[in-house]
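#struct-pred

JT: dropping the chains for the assembly here, can someone run the whole complex?
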Amino acid sequence: MAETVQAVELQEKEPLFGAKEKRLLIDPLSDNNPITVQVLGICSALAVTTLVIPSLVISVAVVFVCAFSNLIISLLRNVIPKQVRMIVQLVVIATLVTIVELTLKAVNFEVYKQLSVFIGLIITNCIVMGRLEAFAMANKPWRSFLDGIGNGLGYGAILVLVAIFREVFGKGSFAGIKIIGNTSDFMINTAADGSWFAWYSPNNLMVLPAAAMFLIGIVIWVQRSRNPKLVDIS
Amino acid sequence: MQRDSTNYVLFFTMTMTVIVAVVLAGMYSSLKDIHTTNEQNYNKKQILSSLDLAENFKASEKADDEVASIFEKQVEGVVINTAGETVEGRVAADVKMEKEEKKAEADRQYPVFKYKSDAGKEYYILSIRGNGLWDKIWGWVAIQNDERKTVVGAAFGHKGETPGLGAEIKDNKTWQKQFAGSEASKLMLYSDAGTYQGLMVKKGGAQDKSYQVDGISGATVTCDGVTEMLERGLAIYMPYLDSIKK
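RK: done, full complex below.
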């Protein structure tokens, strides 16, 4: 009896947001980034990053799905039968993704049309399932939830970063605000008479998925060269 | 119950399925009305976007309410059959081209949208649908109901064409601008001699600018699909347009 009381006390002493919890949130943003270090979820990172707004939307969706699937699986981790563990995880992910899809369809139909299949493809995003298997099945709900948010944010940060480069250099706009281009809709009209920017033309390569691969490659390169922890010693 | 027993697995999966089904079904049915309105507005916006070039219309930048009110006040929908006769009792906005094309050719019905501008100009927006390289492509062509059927603009959509190549039919505004023609030469569906010539996306650049537009490099198959769609799809509306002109 005395032992259990002590155990309960020990549990309560764990801070709600201590150093460990902070690391769960911060690590996936740099040292353990799902895209650049774990190299998960690359396919959607190449496909949806042509424009900033859709990338932001999909990042928010992934943060939501990651966090709540982690939380739910972690709550259920002791009652899930081992034989059907993967199926249960998939059902939880699929349910959350469908919720996101239905909500987006009601809130912003145009972005929903733009993202089309990619919302549904969050189900197959390796990051979500990977975190469930590697973290949520073995950790407590609160920490799993934070881990989900951290990984979602890590994914979203790279997505938005790549999207900013691709939209600005490929389309001459930022989040739909037209900055530079050859019609009068743009703030800087390169086609105007005597324009200083007559030499400018948008880089069409940036619109294609190949550009996303180069950009992610460059991000990985910069990150590895600045962070000694990531240098492969083998 | 043992956690690894078959009964427990069955119990667990069934409970989970029921919970998930109830949650999703509830959400779907409660949001269904909003989804339908959104979809209708989206379609209306796309239909009106074929007028973008005609009078600096910019349908794609208009708010949903504005589009809905334009549709209510200035657009008149008519449904026609293959013989060019009007069909009573059907709303044009509810005619879905993807459903019509599954019917036998003689049974198909087509929507025509007549837009009246504030200045009193009348445009007819015709819906067309065909095949691209990977999947379906579709579009709306706005014309004036004059002798040679002058084209004033067009908008296109596609299901799965390659981004940067075939998808340019939707994304490339400079290419679409050709359908508005220039002051000197407009595209026309009928030739000088009065025969139907349709419209053509010409590989290697338009030669006869009365009915040809430049192709998109790297998207030959999609462009051929667009040509086929324009030629076949627009011909269907001609009997109707001729009949109301008289």
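JT: nice. Residues 40-245 of chain B form one domain. The first helix of chain B runs from residue 6 to 48.
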